């Protein structure tokens, strides 16, 4: 293709902004980045299973699982094992794995043995770093499974039968300040319960909001978007509206306005959502929380898609400050319409919107026109400068795709199986077993000189709430200390276009202002911050901690907050 003047100008602008990053000082507060960049890299051509669910663990390994009731996968169980399950709907003696562990460091896959059906389930990482997964389908819909991470390849799934009180299929989980999980909703379940169980909390409780948001024969309220607010209540979004819910008393504290347009954003009209970065954590009344919901499908799209009429996806996002006394939605327009997309928080506080389609809905063969191009969203920029289109992948990521953040700042992307079985030929979008990464522009090699490198504390350190924390790091050359930030990111459980428990906190000093940075000489610096002040702001568990300079993050370290 001939080079056009526009492309030449684009390239020059890209190089100029990379050089702009390398300058020692910046006078304005608007942070720019090289436009339209990023890099895709194919890691593995076949991981054996389609990545319907993914969770990064504090061992830098990723647990991935699909479902068990479709027949054989593409990877065998180890040591000639077979799963003999008389309740399986397709293959009662199955010698293949339906879950794997991906080792980021070695770029390798290890098969795992999950017994009952985990189809369209939910989960979260527990305070000790274990993955607790709940529900599923058929013989697995009331089960809980625990995966305790290890470094010697000896760990595998442990299963606890019928410990949930209701069937939980297409439910949402969230970690609570006391370390338990709340499990909300699911197909035909307008209720919530807690796990692990404890005295006085071992019941299932009705949540009428879920029945009120249920569209007959369509639903549009599965996998509700749930976030822990800074007051300890839960923001719950389903279909096209939301409530603030006191799960202790069972009282709806606040009812939010319907999102403008009234179109559904929940499964199967699957949009995505994030809790935007929490800032001013020591600011008392000044701390606010804001949720952003993007994409989805117009009313009636699911029915139309089942009739082979694929309606264009929504191109709108709504932001709402959920802590305001009179909260209202502020609408924005994405450069690309998207359904079944994933929204992932980046270490610098930006959001990447990735995967999905531009027509149809979630469901078997109900999506069309894959969106191969991710978009970066900068929530603090002026409205007209927030969205930036990135470089495209060549692999469609349709229904049952996932994306998560890795410790080194890359985005791990896998999955896509819009079929009831594994189907590799003769279909529009074959089952995909590849795994790839997307590296945002902040990983550009030309930014190595400004990329911080954390020296201490060491990874796996334990920290408390409301404590002074000193972080020593290396950054070459003179730096503008006012542009250093420290962030903490909780690794989410990701499935069906929603990352459960995803949370990013921007740490400040003991006065609630920007971090204190001191030069130690020879490109060594120390930044002093205060950890989040409560288990409401930061529920117990493992977080990734980053030092960020001009939107360029260090490689993260693991910290466990007790």
UniProtKB/TrEMBL annotation:
What InterPro entries does this protein map onto? Gal_Oxase/kelch_b-propeller, Gal_Oxidase_central_sf, Glyoxal_oxidase_N, GO-like_E_set, Ig-like_fold, Ig_E-set
The Galactose oxidase-like Early set domain is annotated at 451-561
- Pfam families noted in UniProt: Glyoxal_oxid_N, GO-like_E_set
Q: Which cellular component, as a GO term, is one annotated location? A: extracellular space
Q: Extract the GO molecular function terms from the UniProt entry.
A: oxidoreductase activity
Q: Which UniProt keywords apply?
A: Membrane, Oxidoreductase, Secreted, Signal, Transmembrane, Transmembrane helix
What domain of life does the native source organism fall in?
Eukaryota
Q: What is this protein called?
A: Aldehyde oxidase GLOX
Task: Look up and give the organism this protein is from.
Answer: Buddleja alternifolia
